[in-house]
Design goal:
By secondary structure, the protein is mainly alpha-helical. It folds into two domains: about 80 residues; about 150 residues, no CATH class. It is built from 16 helices and no strands. Helix 4 crosses helix 13. The termini are far apart. It binds a DNA duplex (21 and 21 nucleotides) through helix 3 and helix 6.
DNA sequence: AAACATTGCAACCGCTCTAAT
DNA sequence: CATTAGAGCGGTTGCAATGTT
């Protein structure tokens, strides 16, 4: 078909974002909301590709982002979700409030992967490495026992989209909740992890809120916790971003945060 | 202290998906 | 139904920070 590039490559800036660019983007999004990303750079006065703007916003500037390393409960959740969903980082991220797919993906590749290998577990298949070696070349495709089978949902890929329409309880009723109860018996990874007395963490992380609730109730228990990002801006220089306009966003008294 | 190796993360690239026409 | 364009996703890369020799 020959698609147009997402942006005119000429004159488009690449590489790390400057504070000034961040400020422009934040101001624009907070004033106008997220609209057509292609138009954002032009309207916001940025020499960036719209795609780059979207990425910067969703991965770094979004107000609801949590910052810092994943805690144990979050990490545990990522491991189990990965065992069930594979490298569907956005789906995994959807279960972790304030975390981005990119962040989780990075954390997986840099921390969790190594940890699992160290524990003798294949991070791809979540099977014991020695078992795989003895079995010869069991391809990664046998992974999550084909997650379709695991979820036992009728339509293979439609599920992915529909999944989010379910309340977390509904969504994980057959697989995730049972995981807490008994499935760990069969899962070498979970056996290994549970052996390290992480059940309390699991309990915390697997109490999914209802669809009406925000996931903030699970990991970031308070609104303020989930908005720890704001504190980061304080370090960065709150005024730098001209965030006064955010006072109009919600019930929070932004000036108090300053 | 310098050189080199490793790590971790932000950002980019290219592809797929989806909605609009 | 075919085509197009925009958005989103996952894999990969580049590079600064950190550790090691």
């Amino acid at each position: 078909m020959g698609r147009q590039p997402c942006c005119d490559k000429l004159g488009v800036k690449k590489g790390p974002w400057t504070a000034e660019e961040d400020k422009k983007l934040i101001n624009f999004i907070l004033t106008n909301g997220q609209c057509c990303w292609r138009a954002v750079p032009k309207l916001a006065g940025l020499l960036r590709c719209g795609k780059s703007c979207r990425l910067r916003w969703t991965n770094y500037l979004r107000p609801d982002l949590k910052r810092g390393l994943l805690n144990d409960a979050e990490e545990q959740l990522v491991i189990d979700l990965h065992a069930r969903l594979g490298n569907r980082w956005s789906k995994i991220a959807a279960r972790l409030p304030g975390r981005t797919d990119n962040e989780i993906k990075n954390h997986w590749n840099t921390h969790i992967k190594k940890k699992l290998i160290k524990m003798g577990i294949d991070p791809v298949t979540h099977e014991p490495l020695h078992k795989q070696a003895s079995q010869g070349s069991s391809p990664p495709t046998n992974l999550p026992q084909s997650e379709d089978q695991q979820f036992e949902l009728p339509e293979s890929d439609d599920r992915i989209g529909k999944e989010e329409n379910l309340s977390p309880q509904e969504n994980c009723s057959s697989s995730e909740l049972s995981f807490v109860d008994n499935s760990s018996n069969d899962d070498p990874l979970m056996n290994c992890l549970l052996g390290e007395n992480v059940s309390s963490l699991i309990d915390a992380s697997w109490k999914f809120p209802s669809a009406e609730d925000d996931y903030n109730n699970v990991v970031g228990s308070t609104w303020e916790e989930s908005c720890a990002w704001l504190l980061d801006y304080q370090e960065f220089g709150f005024e730098e971003f001209g965030l006064g306009c955010m006072e109009s966003m919600g019930p929070m008294d932004w000036s108090d945060k300053h």
